[in-house]
Write a structure and sequence with these properties.
Radius of gyration of chain B: 20 Å
Helix content of chain B: 55-70%
CATH topology of chain B: ABC transporter involved in vitamin B12 uptake, BtuC
Strand content of chain A: under 5%
Largest sheet of chain B: 2 strands, antiparallel
Number of helices of chain B: 13
Number of strands of chain B: 4
CATH class of chain A: Mainly Alpha
Order of helices and strands of chain B: HHHHHHEEEHHHHEHHH
Number of domains of chain A: 1
Oligomer: heterodimer
Number of helices of chain A: 16
CATH architecture of chain A: Orthogonal Bundle
CATH architecture of chain B: Orthogonal Bundle
Number of domains of chain B: 1
CATH class of chain B: Mainly Alpha
Distance between the termini of chain B: 18 Å
């Protein structure tokens, strides 16, 4: 028994990860009711979010055009970040909450590039290049950390994210002005130590938003990359790893190395995704911009119908649509129903966290 | 008896030595800090103690502590709503808090029983989810005492309710003994000792022994007739209730009831304190909790004047957070190695 507790993934992963294949078997063996129950269980979160969106949309009393416009902006901001969660799920590592570190790296890169004042598209490409490089290095580090705590990747990811966040804040609050001297002293606080709360990058925003083709290309390239991955050797290794670490080991796969690769790819995608987010925003919230990115991305993915063991690209876009519709309409709905926009905002935070708890419960049931 | 220190304890002791050296250099007022440390220790220590029952039953570290803390916030709000002041106010908020914590804890425990083996991640998100849920409650709850409501509008509770005139410092200021330059808050420490005694007694009962059996060998415990789910539920309720007591003590020392996001900031420090004291997610004693709580608070108190002296006041808080999260991460990574050792 103790062994199972230490290595819970072994038990959960064997034979699962093939959620779709058991449907047909269920139909023959247990009849139609079972099939409906199974369907409900699999799509429970999506259905809940669908109903919530519908209620919220009606209560908010906004036009479809408004929601559509907002959704476009949010697709630009969040789609790639949510895509970043897919590979670790595929590789059986659960939700990668450490993507928050990728987000921090993208903020750091953008600040460095704007401090060097490389203008226009060149600056944007430089920021992407720097993000990719740093994400590769830190992704490797995070991968090693997760390998040291197999079976506990999710909680370790959260704590790693917190620790990274603290160190990142320390870098900007204490490091800048003492160890690192920016070219432009304007971005420091008046006491000369520490970065200001907000760095303006409106110049890049204007360039970026005026090239929808570039945005489209990045989103499609990220989605296409993950789609393409399943036919590559690496993608097959991830999928086998998703079946269980022991299976993978028996098949001669270097488990540790493959897991690190999954986390590196995830971190890179998260960095690229968040870089799009901050460029679209037009300013970098130095100390708080990255917070909660992990939670909201995870909740969106789960709302789209993914589980902790099975996620596909369609789940990303369904989830993006449902979760962010709820995000857009809930303050207005709160205002109209309870006469308080704050209630709507609390509700959507609750929805994000509760989604993850519910996903854990549903995932556990499947194991039992 | 041979004392074996775990890496977090050693690291914190080295950091403490560095701080003491730095403090000596900048001319630290040691005696006020020693007095202050005792208040802070008992103020935060009960929350550290609250982790013990769940660890004792093998449920793991209680990342869902906000559930218990929220129960205490409701309890204290009720006491303020009924304008119960002084000792009566404090005692009644304890009673309310424990009663609500039992209800919340039962629900939380049922959830954790469904998620065996994944209690930690489930606890994190249950705690997180609980806070916005309670925020909705604070916004709509029909409290009427003007001192609790937003000054403008009169609907919804304010984020910080002053306990001035209710039970602020009720434990801090009872039986304070001056020992040379150090003042010892004996009332507060006695209350802390009472909680320690209660926990020790509960561990001695049959249920307490069942918890220990469950942790050490759950299969064997089940075969010997221990109802696993019931005992685990009991441990979770106990942890939640003690966390609620801890929050009441914390608030009377702090002077305010912090609603809304106030409850979310206390879980990780408590966990970290226990780990610093040498505890782990599968094995922790009362000594670990007591020593860890004191070390954690003492180090933080020392670091504040040192950080101020080098003109970066945020540094103390940042270092505290880095130590907090670093210790938790480190303990998670090393857990398996320690088990085999």
């Amino acid at each position: 028994m103790l062994k199972f507790r230490v290595f819970p993934t072994h038990r959960q992963s064997r034979g699962s990860g093939t959620d779709t294949s058991c449907d047909g078997m269920m139909f023959h063996e247990k009849g139609k009711n079972q099939l409906i129950a199974n369907f409900l269980r699999k799509h429970l979160l999506t259905l809940i979010f669908g109903v919530l969106c519908w209620v919220g949309f009606n209560a908010a009393g906004v036009s479809l055009g408004f929601v559509g416009g907002e959704l476009y902006v949010r697709t630009v901001r969040n789609a790639v970040t949510i895509l970043a969660l897919l590979i670790p799920i595929l590789a059986g590592m659960g939700l990668n909450f450490a993507i928050i570190i990728g987000a921090m790296i993208s903020q750091l890169s953008m600040i460095i590039i704007s401090d060097f004042s490389i203008p226009g598209l060149g600056g944007i490409f430089a920021a992407f290049a720097l993000t990719l490089m740093l994400c590769f290095i830190f992704g490797h580090l995070i991968g090693r950390i997760m390998n040291a705590a197999k079976g506990k990747e999710m909680i370790v990811g959260i704590v790693t994210g917190y620790l990274g966040s603290n160190m990142y804040q320390m870098l900007f609050l204490v490091g800048y002005g003492t160890l690192i001297m920016p070219r432009n002293p304007e971005i420091l606080l008046s006491r000369g130590i520490g970065m200001r709360n907000m760095i303006d990058i409106q110049g890049y925003r204007a360039v970026f938003m005026n090239s929808p083709l570039l945005i489209f290309t990045i989103v499609c390239a990220a989605a296409g990359f993950i789609y393409y991955l399943q036919w590559t050797k690496l993608g097959r290794r991830f999928a086998i790893l998703g079946e269980g670490m022991q299976t993978a080991q028996l098949l001669g796969i270097d488990v540790d190395k493959t897991r690190i690769a999954a986390i590196i790819l995830s971190t890179i995608l998260a960095g690229v995704g968040h870089l799009m987010f901050i460029i679209e925003m037009g300013n970098v919230n130095v100390y708080t911009g990255h917070l909660n990115i992990d939670i909201f991305s995870s909740a969106a993915l789960l709302a789209g119908g993914a589980s902790l063991k099975y996620a596909r690209i369609r789940h990303v876009f369904i989830g993006l649509f449902l979760f962010h519709t709820l995000f857009i309409v809930s303050p207005l709905a709160g205002q109209n129903i309870f006469n308080s926009a704050a209630i709507g905002e609390y509700f959507r935070s609750f929805a994000a966290y509760a989604t993850i708890v519910l996903a854990l419960v549903l995932n556990q049931r499947k194991r039992a | 008896m041979r004392i074996k220190l775990k890496p977090p304890t050693i690291v914190i002791l080295i950091y403490l030595a560095m701080l003491l050296a730095g403090g000596f250099y900048v001319g630290l007022p040691l005696f006020p800090i020693l007095s202050e440390s005792m208040v802070k220790f008992a103020m935060n220590g009960i929350m550290v103690l609250s982790l013990l029952p769940m660890i004792h039953a093998g449920v793991g570290l209680n990342f869902g502590m906000p559930v218990g803390l929220s129960a205490a916030l409701v309890g204290m709000s009720l006491a303020i709503q009924f304008k119960l002041q002084g000792g009566v106010g404090f005692l009644s908020s304890l009673v309310f808090a424990i009663a609500i914590a039992v209800v919340f804890g039962a629900a939380y425990g049922k959830l954790l029983n469904r998620l065996k083996g994944r209690e930690e991640i489930a606890g994190v998100f249950t705690g997180f989810a609980f806070i916005p849920l309670m925020n909705i409650f604070w916004t709509v709850a029909p409290f009427t005492n003007r001192q609790m409501l937003y000054p403008v509008g009169g609907v919804g509770l304010r984020p910080k309710i002053s306990l001035d005139g209710y039970f602020r410092f009720i434990l801090d200021e009872t039986l304070v003994i001056q020992l040379g330059k150090i003042s010892i808050p004996l009332g507060l420490l006695l209350f802390y000792a009472l909680v320690v005694a209660v926990i020790a007694l509960i561990f001695k009962t049959q249920n307490g022994k069942a918890m220990a059996a469950l942790r050490l060998n759950s299969g064997f415990a089940r075969l010997s007739g221990v109802d696993e789910n019931r005992v685990r539920l009991l441990a979770v309720i106990l942890s939640t209730a003690i966390a609620a007591v801890g929050m009441c003590v914390y608030s009377q020392s702090f002077g305010f009831v912090q609603l809304y996001d106030g409850a979310s900031m206390l879980t990780f420090p408590a966990l970290s304190a226990l780990l610093i004291g040498g505890g782990g997610s599968r094995q922790a004693t009362i000594t670990n909790a007591v020593a860890g709580a004191y070390l954690y608070q003492f180090v933080y108190l020392l670091s504040v004047p040192v950080a101020n002296a080098i003109l970066i006041p945020e540094l103390a808080e940042l270092l505290r957070m880095i130590i907090t999260n670093g210790v938790i991460l480190f303990a998670m990574l090393m857990e398996r190695r320690w088990q085999h050792a």
